Amino acid sequence: MIRTSNLQKVFTTEEVETTALNGIQMEINPGEFVAIMGPSGCGKSTLLNILGLLDNPSEGSYEFFGTEVSGMSERQRANLRKGNIGFVFQSFNLIDELTVYENVELPLLYLKTPAGERKKRVEAALERMNIMHRRNHFPQQLSGGQQQRVAIARAVIANPKVILADEPTGNLDSANGLEVMNLLTQLNQAGTTVIMVTHSVHDSGFAHRVVNLFDGKVVTEQR
Ligand code: ADP
Ligand code: MG
Questions:
Q1: 16: which strand partners?
Q2: Spacing, Cα 141 to ligand 1 middle (Å)
Q3: Is pLDDT of 220 > 90?
Q4: Percentage of the residues of the chain whose pLDDT score is greater than 70
Q5: Around Cβ 223, how many Cβ atoms within 10 Å?
Q6: Ligand 1 atom closest to Cα of 12?
């Protein structure tokens, strides 16, 4: 279970304060597929980054599967992320200097997974994402759809409890976008909790529930 209570996030830059999140109450059950929608600048990415343990709230509580996260150090959050959280971004965020295979292997290196098992799991993920034939290519040699499939393989390689996706189809044409949504749906059906930010009403239709944000607050929810 993911639970936030009165979550606030204030950014301070050059004496300007921006309240990006202003009292978010949210409960997400294991196995749910939730879409987060709302206009640009309303706090979607900020919320997703906090839910994904990339950032800390300024105030309020965030409980991740029984562990209170707010107040944790950067290092404690990084440890909790390992094996628990996979991230997918609009811009793919692959490492250009590493091959497809090496990008997907990276989380398992952090987890110190033995070499034999690493190989088995990376190959299985590449097969599953239909990108095995590109294993020795570099990200810049791939189409956007292929890069996003590599990013999803990397996000799922450590069998995370939760996948967070920030506009995962935002840079893709509709055919590749549909493929990405189908992959996320398959992962969700296999038990992974999926939390996705999207602008697309079409993509939000894949979710069990849509949470609408406005000005750092949850305004409506639809099932
Ligand atoms: P969305 O993803 O919904 O477009 P964001 O969560 O990226 O919105 O941003 C919410 C608000 O917080 C915006 O006003 C944005 O400018 C501000 N913001 C986001 N990240 C930072 C940051 N690192 N420093 C300062 N302000 C930020
Ligand atoms: Mg955003």
A1: 13
A2: 31
A3: no
A4: 100
A5: 6
A6: 25
Residues with CB under 5 A from ligand 2 (ion): 44-45
Indicate which atom in ligand 1 lies nearest the CA of residue 47: 6
Tell me the pLDDT tens digit for each residue of 59-106: 999 999 999 998 899 999 999 998 899 999 999 999 999 999 999 999
Q: For 30-70, what is each residue's pLDDT tens digit?
A: 999 999 999 999 999 999 999 999 999 999 999 999 999 98
The answer for residues whose C-beta is within 8 angstroms of residue 27's C-beta and 6 or more apart is 1, 2, 3, 4
- Given a cut of 90, whether residue 188 has pLDDT beyond it is yes
pLDDT at residue number 68: 95
CA of 72 to the centre of ligand 1 (A): 22
Task: Among the bound ligands, name the one nearest to the CA of residue 36.
Answer: 1
Q: Which pairs with CB-CB distance under 8 Å and at least 24 residues apart come from 62-66?
A: 62/2, 62/3, 62/4, 62/5, 62/7, 63/1, 63/2, 63/3, 63/4, 64/2, 65/1, 65/2, 65/30, 65/161, 66/1
Both tokens assigned to 88: 């997918």
| Ligand that lies nearest to the alpha carbon of residue 42, given by its number in the listed order | 1
HSE value, Cβ hemisphere, 13 Å, CA-based, for 163: 33
Closest residue to atom 10 of ligand 1, CA basis: 43
